[in-house]
């Protein structure tokens, strides 16, 4: 069903999309022109067309392998952070006292730049996959725990009582009332967690590794292969944006019952 | 109707409530609050009973005890002669004060929620859900979300959800509390015609004395501080009752009597 209000929104969303596309396409064109006209130095700012050629070269040289390595780290770390973070959040939220103390602690943890701890991770876990994944989890974990705890504390007690009066088991209450009312909070947390998680994995790869997108970025940077560097950056950004948009799309589907826009 | 068939398989005494010596103290930071003190009454099966009394006299607390959602400090509740503890979803349904619909579910999915909890199949749920919505006059609103409904419609969805449980005891806490006088009486009339088919035991909390007398076989009048029963008024007006009955002398006499009882405490 799409009432008149929805139509207005679709039209507005569409024109927004046109503006965003314009904001991306126009500078790229200007950039291309500037390089060809000799205004920009192509060794530091290679033309977009040169970057596209470089990306083709990257794929020929086995970019897919590095992509797979990084994607595996990112996905495994994300799932681990999501599952353990949610479970821990739920457990900690059971006691009001514990929740209060832990929330304070996690707020401290959230305000510390995670990269400070990277050398420590290397000392303890070495430089392999385990360290990359662990650092990704570490980067994303706290956000999920905090969001879960906040989410649980905002679940409407009346709804729980209603479910209980109808004979809902604890598991049913958790899935059908808790999780469902927390879904918007959790989705938003997952979005932020994913950004932190990708950042964590990439930084860990840039710091020490022999493979992965982070490794490519740091090595192309060190060897002045700017076209390839920009190529990897473009691809990595694209993946981040796509994932983000996917979660935003999931979130938008809840707008009808929530009444948000 | 399938609802009636289900009711008839149960014995006629199904839905008898006996409350004996129920007291409840809430523990607060400022000490104990005596919300209920020594409440005893019995509700025979198939009776429509209203609870009235000033705000804070413990009507909702008593209902929560009856629903098995709150364990009283003292005393007990018997359902069909059996002492109960905890919710009894197969026999007791509750329509809460503020509808309590799940905001992320359509009317249909809200109404069929109790069936979903029992593992009833999707098609069966949908069929029964649509029937229940039709009973409360909301056939055309199955796909609407709670926020897309008016307050009165939401409460009707809540009533439909309680009815779908086919309860032998239906507990309602000011289900029409948020409505204007006109709509409230319309809903009362609809509720009565639904109830005439089912004839289960109803405990109905309200502030509205006209509504209480119009609907009930008996009105239990409560007083506050601590919450207690001061009188049980039998309403022996004939059924089925048309809304015009509220203008008869007998009706007004009963209503005024209850009003004076509440005022004198
Ligand atoms: N959770 C609670 N903690 C402490 N005191 C409570 C709690 N719930 C209710 N009370 C107190 O118990 C008494 C009875 O409350 P209750 O809600 O049962 O009254 P009520 O008759 O339903 O009132 P109303 O008509 O306003 O809904 C009141 O004095 C109230 O302040
Ligand atoms: Mg109340």
Write the layout of secondary structure elements.
The complex is a heterodimer of chains A (261) and B (265).
Chain A: H1 4-36, H2 48-60, H3 63-92, H4 96-111, H5 118-125, H6 129-153, H7 157-165, H8 170-207, H9 213-222, H10 226-252, H11 255-258
Chain B: H1 2-9, E1 17-28, E2 31-43, E3 48-52, H2 59-66, E4 74-79, E5 82-83, E6 92-95, H3 107-111, H4 113-117, H5 122-135, H6 151-164, E7 169-173, H7 181-198, E8 201-205, H8 209-215, E9 218-223, E10 228-234, H9 249-263
Parallel strand pairs in B: 3-8, 3-9, 6-7, 7-8
Antiparallel strand pairs in B: 1-2, 1-4, 4-5, 9-10
Helix pairs in contact in B: 5-6, 8-9
Adenosine-5'-triphosphate is lined by residues 26, 28, 33, 35, 55-61, 227 of chain B.
Describe the protein in words.
The complex is a heterodimer of chains A (261) and B (265). Chain A is mostly helical and 261 residues long. Chain A has one domain: MetI-like fold, CATH 1.10.3720. Helix content of chain A is 82%, strand content 0%. Chain A has helices at residues 4-36, 48-60, 63-92, 96-111, 118-125, 129-153, 157-165, 170-207, 213-222, 226-252, 255-258. Chain A starts with a helix and ends with a helix. The mean pLDDT of chain A is 89. Chain B is an alpha/beta fold and 265 residues long. Chain B has 2 domains: 17-91 and 168-264, Rossmann fold (3-Layer(aba) Sandwich); 101-166. Chain B has 9 helices and 10 strands. In chain B, the strands form 2 sheets. Chain B has a 6-stranded mixed sheet with strand order 6-7-8-3-9-10, sandwiched between helices. Chain B has a 4-stranded antiparallel sheet with strand order 2-1-4-5, with helices on one face. In chain B, helix 5 (122-135) crosses helix 6 (151-164) and helix 8 (209-215) crosses helix 9 (249-263). Chain B starts with a helix and ends with a helix. In chain B, 43% of the residues are buried. Chains A and B meet through helix 7, helix 8 and helix 11 of A and strand 6 and helix 4 of B. The structure holds adenosine-5'-triphosphate (ATP) and magnesium ion. Adenosine-5'-triphosphate binds next to strand 1, strand 2 and helix 2 of chain B. Chain B: Pfam families: ABC_tran. Chain B: GO terms for molecular function: ATP binding; ATP hydrolysis activity. Chain B: It comes from Blastococcus aggregatus. Chain B: This is NitT/TauT family transport system ATP-binding protein. Chain B: Residues 17-249 form the ABC transporter domain.
